[in-house]
Structure formats: C-alpha cells, structure tokens
Design brief:
The protein has 4 helices and 2 strands. By secondary structure, it is mainly α. The longest helix has 19 residues. The model has no long low-confidence stretch (mean pLDDT 81).
Length: 119
C-alpha cells in the first residue's frame, strides 16, 4: 500500500553489468555476496538467481529503466550518471503525466488508509 503513494522505479541491467558495478564497489561489503566476492562470474550468477526469484516483484514497478551497456565492451556502463538521471526523470515524468498517477499522489495518509488490528 505504501508503495502506491508514489512512483516505484525499477533499475535493471544484465547480471554481468551489475556484477561489474558490485565488484568495483567491493562485493565483500555486501552480505549477499559473501563467499563469492572475489569471483565476478559467481557474483553475476548470484545476481541472475536473485533477478529470477524477484521478477514478480520487479514487474510491479511503475517505471522500468534498464541500465545502458557500452556496445563495444559488454558488461560496462554505456552512459554517464547525468545521462542516466535525465533518462530516469523523463520516464518518471511520462508515466506520471500519461496515466493519471499525478492525480493519485498524496503525501499524507487519509483516514482508513492504515488499519491496526490485533492489539
């Protein structure tokens, strides 16, 4: 319910691209990659498993944005952070304007939005 009080964005990329980013930032600092943090292929495999498992949740996002890969070097990023930010904002703006999401957004819950049961 709380996710419907805004626009849910899902950033995605290929397992190899995401593994490269995680390896660059230090896979050992992420609990999900303990034991495989020194192996980019194993990190990519773990990411692929998680993506399959989480696909139904990711599919519920209002906006899906796929990270661009460098065409000359697959597995590496193909756009700057600024370019990605502009692309994300265009997608979010289009979604809000195109489907009436803007009319449903509010910052405070209304009476009845939250129910507490079993005290």
């Amino acid at each position: 319910m709380h996710l419907r009080n805004g626009v849910v964005l899902c950033l995605s990329g290929t397992p190899s691209l995401l593994a490269g980013r995680i390896m660059r930032d230090g896979a050992g600092t992420r609990p999900l990659f303990k034991g495989v943090e020194d192996d980019a292929d194993a990190v990519a495999g773990k990411i692929e498993e998680m993506m399959k498992e989480r696909a139904p949740m990711y599919a519920n996002a209002d906006v899906q944005v796929r990270l661009a890969e460098n065409e000359d070097t697959p597995g590496t990023e193909g756009e700057t952070l600024e370019e990605l930010n502009v692309r994300i904002m265009r997608c979010v703006k289009a979604r809000i304007e195109d489907d009436g999401t803007k009319d449903r957004l509010r910052s405070e819950p209304k009476p009845g939005d939250i129910t507490i049961t079993g005290a």
